[in-house]
Design brief:
With 303 residues, the protein is of the alpha/beta class. The two termini are 23 Å apart.
Length: 303
């Protein structure tokens, strides 16, 4: 089978080499499309491939239409909102992600953001410590669980917002109420996918309930945040802070109005470690091999 590695933001050389070894050992051909600049380059590259590995690259309906032989798309990472699932499903193209491979990198970034915001963005002045603070976690998958473990190691109290069976998370404090979570926690960490149900779910009426000095941490998706509500909450509460790995549309206005109370990475950095880069790429290659060898669809997201 012909496999396209389409990465506008390339994998590390070690990851590409590993992906090639895994695929070629299984008898597949690897084609590289790295650092491409235009949609037309991607459309041309997918014309005759059977599978493709992507990162944040967009697999739109147009790409699906151009990929006449495509059978499988693997998103090297957890989120897959950059793939048109409807178009793929209509063509019977299997879409997979690689959950867990980037999780530790994202969890470490979330903790790093908490420290950075607590210490006045490393500017002069008295900051505060994480120890003894309460952390609320929304989304308790691989990333949420790792954040919780690291936070506890730093002396934080963790509260999980969950609708799941209590016995599953016996070791953690839990709440079924957004109001209680926001009103109780010094930090809130957002770790959920962007879906029709979750988009805009982080809103004004919750944010203004946070304790004095409260800080929202978002390493998930910008669409989860109601930007108008965030702006209003930060305006009314000069003690609130916001740190995000995905700059909102209004980031320039936020920075102008609120200065160091708002921080956004220059680009999405959650998975930007050499370890996560390699892990996700190799996992994607292994999943492609298993799919064509035994029909394994364990990580399919468009069932």
């Amino acid at each position: 089978m012909k496999v396209l590695l389409a990465t506008e933001k390339p994998f590390a050389a070690e990851a590409v080499s590993g992906i090639r070894d895994i695929l070629e050992e299984a008898g597949h051909e690897l084609v590289l499309l790295e650092k491409y600049k235009t949609k037309e380059e991607l459309l041309a590259a997918v014309a005759d491939v059977d599978a493709m590995i992507i990162r944040s690259d967009k697999v739109t309906a147009e790409v699906v239409e151009a990929a006449k032989q495509l059978k499988l798309v693997v998103r090297a990472g957890a989120g897959y909102d950059n793939v048109d699932l409807k178009a793929c499903t209509e063509r019977k193209i299997v879409v997979m992600n690689t959950p867990g491979q980037n999780s530790n990198a994202v969890a470490e970034l979330a903790i790093g953001m908490m420290i950075y915001m607590s210490r006045n963005c490393f500017n002069p002045g008295t900051g505060s410590e994480l120890s003894g603070k309460k952390l609320g976690i929304i989304g308790f998958g691989n990333i949420g669980q790792l954040i919780a473990k690291k936070a506890v190691a730093l002396g934080m109290d963790v509260i999980i917002k969950t609708d799941e069976i209590k016995e599953k998370h016996q070791r953690w404090n839990m709440t079924f109420s957004f109001d209680k979570l926001y009103s109780s926690c010094d930090f809130i960490s957002i770790n959920i996918p962007a879906t029709p149900m979750t988009k805009g779910s982080v809103k004004y009426e919750y944010l203004v309930q946070m304790p004095k000095g409260g800080c929202l941490i978002n390493t998930a998706r910008k669409e989860l945040i109601c930007e108008e509500g965030l702006m209003q909450a930060l305006t009314e509460r000069p003690d609130l802070k916001y740190a995000t790995d995905i700059a909102p549309e209004c980031i320039n206005e936020l920075k102008e109005k609120f200065g160091n109370r708002v921080f956004a990475t220059p680009k999405k950095m959650g998975a930007e470690t050499s370890e996560a880069n390699i892990n996700a790429g190799l996992a994607a290659a292994h999943q492609i091999v298993k799919y064509f060898e035994i029909g394994c669809v364990k990580f399919q997201v468009n069932k």
